[in-house]
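input
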Amino acid sequence: MPLGTLDRSAPTLFKQGPSPLSRLTLYSALALFLMVADARFHLTEPLRKAVSTALYPLQWLMLQPVEFADKGAGYFQSLQAAQQGVDDAQRTMAQMSVRAGEAEQLLRENAELRQLLALRERLTTEATAAQVIYDTADPYTRRVMVDLGQLAGVEPGSPVMDASGVLGQVTRVFPMLSEVTLLIDRDQAIPVLNLRTGARSVAYGDPVAGHGGGMELRFTPGNADVQEGDLLTTSGVDGLYPAGLPVARVLRVERRADSAFARIYCAPVAQMYGARHVMVLKPVVADLPPRPEPAPAAPKRGGRK
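output
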């Protein structure tokens, strides 16, 4: 037989071995034996530790992307939660600021109303409470609008005052509103009385107020007894303002040699730019008795006989 045709495989006798069922039974028994031995004698514990130690770097490396993703998601969630907390805190602070402002305004209005009630008890003339709505749009005048008009019985010329003193005078009356010209308007004048000396004068409005006031006593002699700090009240001779209402205080007195009159600057005691609640008084002329009729002229005597 040629060498190239020799069968190099093992003979049939050597190919025979255990059957698959026998091998399954053997391996199962071996596995059960190893499990029992490991559970009882911990035979594979060193091997398990060695394998775990050898595989730890690979395990750590494989878990890094997962941990990075978890940390990134947690970072963004915490950042969003922090931003939401900041927004909520700012919103709460804004609401608290608004409420604090409203509470302060209510306290101020409550104090003003209490002062007006106390003032109303001291007044001898009829008075009605009103509220200032807005200032007029004319920049060359000093006027405000109140929420009372003809329907409430307001008359032109009615004095208006706040808790501190005289504020102005009603100059125009509408059905639901009234226009009040403040004392610092250039067209406004009010007879006043110096409470210290008893001297009468007339105070005029001065809207420029470059001297720090808002009113001026004009046509006062240079030698008149007027001092800084004098309180000026209504004299009551005009038939509109009740006597004794506070009007202004003297700020500065300038006496010049080239003029026979002194320049006397005054500051009104009422809140010209901040009054919210005011009292509209009834003009004094409405309570005055009517003027008596003039006596009839005596008949002339006849001519000479």
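quick obs: The radius of gyration is 52 Å.
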